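Apologies for my clumsy wording, but could you write out the amino acids of a protein and the C-alpha cells describing how it folds?
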Amino acid sequence: MSNLPNCPKCNSAYTYEDGLMLVCPECGHEWSLEAASNNEDEKVVKDANGNVLNDGDTVTIIKDLKVKGSSSTLKIGTKVKNIRLVDGDHDIDCKIDGFGAMKLKSEFVKKV
C-alpha cells in the first residue's frame, strides 16, 4: 500500500494518484503532489475557531485559565498582542500585561 497523504480539505485517507495530481474520492478535491510535500514541512497553528495563526497576531483568551504555580488566573477576554508561534504542546509564546511571559495552547485563544 502506498503512503499518499490524506486529503487537505476533508482529511480522507482514501486519496489516489491520477497522473501528476492527487484526488480525494470523498470530496472531489484535487491537488498536486508537489503542493502536498510543501504542506507537510510547514506546521499550521489554528485557533479555537479554526483560523490560521501567524507570528505577530493579536488573540483573545476564550476561557479562564489557571496559571500553574500561581494563585492568579487569566480571565476570559484578555487580549494578547504580538504572539510568537513555537513548537511543542503549548504552541504560542507571548507576553501578557500584568503577568509576564507565558506559553499558551492555541485551542484556548481566538484571533482578533
Notes: The two ends are 44 Å apart (CA to CA). The chain has a mean pLDDT of 87.
